[in-house]
Amino acid sequence: MTQDILELKGIASQVRRDIVRMVHGCQSGHPGGSLGCTDYLVALYFSIMKHDPSFNMEGAGEDLFFLSNGHISPVFYSVLSRSGYFDKAELAEFRKINSRVQGHPTTHEGLPGIRIASGSLGQGLSVGIGAALSKKLNGDDRLVFTLHGDGELQEGQIWEAAMFAPHNRVDNLIATVDVNGQQIDGPTKVVLSLGDLRAKFEAFGWEVMEMQGNDMTLVVEGLQKAISLSGKGKPVMILMQTEMGAGVDFMMGSHKWHGVAPNDAQLQQALDQLPETLGDY
Amino acid sequence: MTKYTYTEKKDTRSGFGAGLLEAGKRNPKVVALCADLVGSLKMQDFINAFPERFVQVGIAEANMIGIAAGMTIGGQIPFTGTFANFSTGRVYDQIRQSVAYSDKNVKICASHAGLTLGEDGATHQILEDLGMMKMLPGMTVINPCDYNQTKAATIAIAEHHGPVYLRFGRPVVPIFTPADQVFEIGKAWMVSEGTDVTIIATGHLVWEAIQACEKLEAMGISAEVINIHTIKPLDEEAILKSVSKTRCVVTAEEHNRLGGLGDSVAQVLVKNLPVPQEYVAVNDSFGESGTPEQLMEKYKLNAPAIVAAAQKAIQRKG
């Protein structure tokens, strides 16, 4: 394993510590999906994207990321703060009154790194397409990344956007679906089956690839592959297999930790499994 | 009273089309999006002039709002176009989260608003859009009265930073606004001065208010007519200045009486200067098929209805 991957894994462990501590701190929030998407977001912000933590809304000349499933805000906030967008001490204010780190991400409180509000599901793919079109108009050759939950694909707007992007050759867009198979009321296949996602997106005209989302080496390689597939006339879709709650054994494999906070003993149990590498907030 | 005449009738949506083309000429960041209604929204001239700055999204209004919000990131100034019903009610949540709450510089341009859409009937005749849009924090809400004012408003909102809802209609209506009149967002237009009653109108009912004003004058009643083209932010100063003189009000709008211009005016009055107010508006019902003229008559949204309301308001002054 290269030094880079070891370093990214260390950051991911710290981000996971942040997530469980944030959700514990306010006794509210969504740890399961956040933990599952940690490796992806760490790879994106610490290895893959060209981005500037001094932050301006337009992000000219930068790669942009949009979180569509806004409830996994803990992982987003942790990664943003630890990449230098704002002081990590602010993570302690998560979901508390008078805070910029709202329950779901918003531009309204002026937190650096957030370019769109999300929380009401299904809107982020359209927004990502818009940002990608804007980059093309501006002659800006950087990329737009979006992340979606698999349950979120039950929203109809996703399929409006899925139809639009290939038709209009939006090939500077790399969308990722976190396929953890869980949603609030139970497994996706029980609540509302998504069917063959690869076949569905391919039928619309997407370039589709699959990726294991909880192995840092594979995530970095997968994202590099996705970038190599971009710019060829098609939008790129990554179907990313993750485990909800990844990194915390008692949270893994069940929808029960979608939106539940750990108690004091559970927090300690989680932290005992996650080495501290960069210092807690 | 000030006399108004007209030599030409034109649809307000054509004013939007002309304004969009002009806004596009003035600023290369202006882009247009449409959900399969290019002809209805009169967007073809813009498309001919700037094909690379036009996005056809198909019949997918939610996606259109999201794409527009995304295009602001990068500095574009998106104008979305579809019928008022599909511009608001169908995509309220998309506007709420991705545009208003996110404070994105999107111009939501809505044609075929209200009953005067006509024969298509109630499914297409939204009468709640002003209310929905004005309830969104940070949203500017504009409802111009004729071709010239719609054109001027379209140019003005391109220069205004922030989310805007621009509402216009389908039928042809008299052009009485001077072509060179400057459109100032949030600033009411004093159409005609009077002393006995204030008629506050918006959209094409401003012309009906002018007709009502003439009829009232013939009856010996002096009416003041104010065009509130900007529902939000509301020009409270102009309203209070007029009402402090006339001591009674008629509001006129092609909208449900709940949640529209009338309610905005009532809030100002109840806080500052409680006086009798009469509503000329749709009385909390859906519309139906018919010609615009038939519907205006049946739902009492015309000059005779404004005259009757003015008489009632004056009577209530006691």
TrEMBL record, chain A:
Residue span, Transketolase N-terminal domain: 12-270
UniProt cross-references to PANTHER family, sorted A to Z: TRANSKETOLASE N-TERMINAL SECTION-RELATED (PTHR47514:SF1)
Superkingdom as given in the UniProt entry: Bacteria
Enzyme Commission code(s) on record: 2.2.1.1
InterPro entries: THDP-binding (IPR029061), Transketolase_N (IPR005474)
Similarity section: Belongs to the transketolase family.
The entry's keywords: Thiamine pyrophosphate, Transferase
Organism, as annotated: Mucilaginibacter terrae
Name of the protein in its database record: Transketolase
Gene3D superfamilies per record: 3.40.50.970
UniProtKB/TrEMBL annotation, chain B:
Protein name: Transketolase
GO molecular-function terms, A-Z: transketolase activity
Record-linked CDD domains: TPP_PYR_DXS_TK_like (cd07033)
Pfam family for this entry, one: Transketolase_C
Keyword Transferase: yes
Domain Transketolase-like pyrimidine-binding: 10-175
EC number: 2.2.1.1
Alphabetized SUPFAM superfamilies for the sequence: Thiamin diphosphate-binding fold (THDP-binding) (SSF52518), TK C-terminal domain-like (SSF52922)
Keyword list, A-Z: Transferase
InterPro entries: PDH/Transketolase, THDP-binding, Transketo_C/PFOR_II, Transketolase-like_Pyr-bd, Transketolase_C
Keyword Ligase recorded: no
Broad class of enzyme this protein falls into: transferase
Gene3D superfamilies: 3.40.50.920, 3.40.50.970
Origin superkingdom: Bacteria
